[in-house]
Amino acid sequence: MPVPTIPEQISPVRLGDYLEVMTRAVFQAGLSWQMIAERWDAFREGFCGFDVDRVATFDEGDIDRLMTMDGILHSSRKIRATVKNAQVMLELDRRPGGFAAYLRSFPGYTAFATDFRRRFKFMGEMNVWYFLFCVSEPVPKFESWVKTISGDHPRMREMVEQARKRPC
Fold first, then answer.
1. Using an 8 Å Cβ cutoff, are 42 and 71 in contact?
2. Is the CB of residue 7 less than 8 Å from the CB of residue 33?
3. pLDDT tens-place string over residues 1-49
């Protein structure tokens, strides 16, 4: 069965589902979706199935392990960002309503995106929109929003178009 290259929208069930989408955004930045999709099983293995409690406790030994693991993009900055993002996610999840409540706690997208980029590593404008879109949270209409971001972003356009074609 071929590996899908366009990330799918999900309905998160556990905190790790959010971490997996966020980590994919972090590692995909600047690379082809296919490159990351073909290696995603190694990422799941290396990051312990995106168990947030475990990833949040990763130490230098774990980072060294991931840096030498086949299939993982060997970027210590992105690996460390994933560990930090898991720690922040756990912190937010301890609040009333958990992490999902945090995602819905802002009066609008701009305020949310500003806070999200401040808290999480490697989450720029495009990654914030991508993250919310992939975890089925409300986002601004892509065609209007993308005009606020410099560049053409053909892969994001492709992802949005594929999502629109899927049956509900």
1. yes
2. yes
3. 555 556 788 999 999 999 999 999 999 887 777 888 899 999 999 999 9
Residue with tokens 């995909």: 28
φ/ψ of 87, rounded to 5, equals -65, -45
For residues 103 and 132, the answer to whether their CB atoms sit within 8 Å is yes
For tokens 């960002």, what's the residue?
81
Please give, one letter per residue, the 3-state secondary structure of 142-164.
HHHHHHHCCCCCHHHHHHHHHHH
Q: How far apart are the first and last CA of the chain?
A: 23
CB 149 within 8 A of CB 125: yes
Task: Give, as one character, the DSSP assignment of residue 9.
Answer: P
Cα distance between residue 156 and residue 154, in whole Å: 5
* Alpha-carbon gap, residue 35 to 71, rounded angstroms: 10
Instruction: Please report which helix (H) or strand (E) contains residue 53, including its range.
Output: helix 52-55
Contacts of 160 (CB under 8 A, 6+ apart): 133, 142
Residue with the two structure tokens 């802002």: 106
The residue written with tokens 């356009």 in the block is 157
Residues 91, 85 contacting (CB under 8 angstroms): no
SS3 for 98?
helix
